UniProtKB/TrEMBL annotation:
Sequence similarity: Belongs to the enoyl-CoA hydratase/isomerase family.
Annotated protein name in UniProt: MaoC family dehydratase
Pfam families attached to this UniProt entry: MaoC_dehydratas
Taxonomic lineage of the native organism: Bacteria, Bacillati, Actinomycetota, Actinomycetes, Micrococcales
Domain MaoC-like, first and last residues per copy: 17-127
InterPro entries: HotDog_dom_sf, MaoC-like_dom, MCH/BMMD
The species this protein was found in: Kocuria tytonicola
């Protein structure tokens, strides 16, 4: 049997402050995606569900639920950054949606490592701060956030 390679995210000590990760593939968001996400999360906002009402509003159509946009932006980073190496999602700050997503737009995601420090209370683990940015197919920024994540250190390595 040949070498076994298991896909995983990065361990805490593998993160480099300033590194920029561009995640692939992009995700084209459909009307069905938006309606399903919106109803699953019990968000009854007419802006996402009511085509007639939305058609009379500023954008002239339903918009993609911003919480779905944020979820996809963060979710796109998992395979490359945190798959199987995350301990906990600690929180979000600076969340912004500077431009709407429309049905049929494709969302591309990137992550920049802002800070990394060993955990003071959890030996062998560390906290990273990452800025996630989502852009549509035209490169327009549609979502940004800064996220703090508690990560496992590499097995057998002391993080202190």
């Amino acid at each position: 049997m040949g070498k076994v390679i298991e896909q995983r995210g990065l361990y805490f000590d593998e993160f480099e402050v300033g590194a920029l990760y561009k995640h692939a593939p992009g995700r084209t968001v459909t009307e069905a995606d938006n309606v399903l996400f919106t109803t699953l999360t019990m968000n009854t906002q007419s802006l996402h569900l009511d085509a007639a009402w939305s058609g009379r509003q500023e954008f002239g159509e339903r918009l993609v639920n911003s919480m779905m946009t944020l979820s996809i932006v963060v979710g796109a980073s998992v395979a490359q950054l945190t798959q199987g190496t995350i301990v906990a999602n600690l929180g979000f700050e600076e969340v912004a949606f500077p431009h709407p997503m429309h049905h049929g737009d494709t969302l591309y995601s990137e992550s920049e490592i802002l800070d990394a420090r060993p955990s003071k209370s959890r030996p062998g683990q560390g906290i990273i701060r990452v800025r996630h940015v989502g852009r549509n197919q035209d490169g327009t920024v549609v979502a940004t956030c800064v996220r703090s994540v508690l990560m496992q250190g590499a097995p057998g390595k002391d993080q202190s």
